[in-house]
């Protein structure tokens, strides 16, 4: 099942690491550590093989992909030996990267994206293309009446400059081109009623939001623990220090607020109440593509005994995110092949702020994910059996 992976923000750290990783896996130069879909519980015939993934994408930046990969290798994000071993493969992907489209109206920009996606799919004879947004976090979108109605949105695209934020414009274009859409960021993306209607109209799945790679991943394990042990969390405060492009982008207060809101939601929805405390995100340029999170949790036990817990998470954001990008592309492609339409709530395991998820508990999300993939594999085996 030849599958295109079209990355919005294709020259960024996460996208570059995803591309290098995917190429290295295809060439058997690296193992799949971090790729959830390679665990025995998820692996199976419904998922496209790494060898069947074809990469392309859009970006406003023009730095050559190979140069970007060399920079990440020098920073300790990527093994230098992999970058050195893949010059031809990186050059081939470079040919598939396009500048972010311009145009006088949103409709013009949508049409340009649709042309790029359609051309990419046709030239490579792909069964499908999954569009994955890994671009910079946007501020929360300003509500617009057209967001609630597909017909009104189509009319507004012709002459209303700011009717959609960039992530939603790409979601609209992806769905219009017949491509499933995944938002790995906390940006608005397909999370609008009009875009849900478009996905249903075109018979397409979509997934998001905001990849769960660090502090929130730990929260999704610890918060259910406190709830199940009937321990009262009094406060939960976190400090996140980020470098790199993501950290620089989050220095903008509006983008920072959108990210913090996504990170905090897990506590209130898991505990059933919101403890005192807040999450802060600060940009520290010297950290580069690495991030550090420090959390302090105070809680009450039996007979009101007061206790506390602290943890520190230090990781490489791109190396944590990239395998999940590959996982989500493979799972979404399989869901599309199986005829799934609308939000893929079973992929909540991967997101801080998942669409329509009944729980933030990582264990419960894992159970739903494994059941989902079992059904996908069973359906594929039945279809292949009937075809034979």
What this model shows, in words?
By secondary structure, the chain is an alpha/beta fold. It folds into 2 domains: 3-211 and 319-384, NAD(P)-binding Rossmann-like Domain (Rossmann fold), CATH 3.40.50.720; 215-315, Dihydrodipicolinate Reductase, domain 2 (2-Layer Sandwich), CATH 3.30.360.10. The chain is built from 13 helices and 11 strands. It has helices at residues 13-26, 65-74, 80-85, 87-94, 106-123, 150-157, 166-176, 193-202, 215-228, 244-249, 253-271, 317-337, 362-387; strands at 3-8, 53-59, 97-99, 128-133, 181-183, 205-208, 232-242, 279-283, 290-300, 306-316, 342-343. Strands 3-2-1-4-5-6-11 form a 7-stranded parallel beta sheet, with helices on both faces. Helix 8 links the parallel strand 5 and strand 6. Helix 5 packs across helix 7 (166-176) and helix 7 packs parallel to helix 8. The two termini are 17 Å apart.
